[in-house]
Write a structure and sequence with these properties.
single chain; mainly alpha; 74% helix
Length: 90
């Protein structure tokens, strides 16, 4: 399944040292403030996803491909939550 492979690659990309460092800094900046989390953490996760999904046939760019990827019916809420929970539990 393409989406399962993409999810696995996104999680692997989050673990890369340069991405993990950026996320740790963003999470520290955001603290427990959800607005700051959306301002600092979420954009980094989206950029990581965008970088990964282009290898799975999505266009390289910011023209809604990440939304198409994230909101495809094949993705369950559980699968999407894996990415975000994974980020917060690092």
């Amino acid at each position: 399944m393409v989406f399962a492979a993409a999810l696995k690659k996104v999680l692997e990309a989050i673990d890369l040292p340069e991405n993990a460092t950026k996320l740790a800094e963003a999470k520290q900046t955001a603290g427990n403030d959800m607005v700051k989390c959306m301002q600092f953490v979420f954009p980094i996760v989206v950029l990581i996803q965008m970088d990964v999904i282009k290898d799975f046939g999505f266009k390289d760019g910011r023209n809604g491909e990440i939304l198409m990827f994230s909101h495809t019916n094949i993705w369950s809420a559980y699968e999407l939550s894996k990415i975000y929970l994974y980020v917060y539990l690092l």
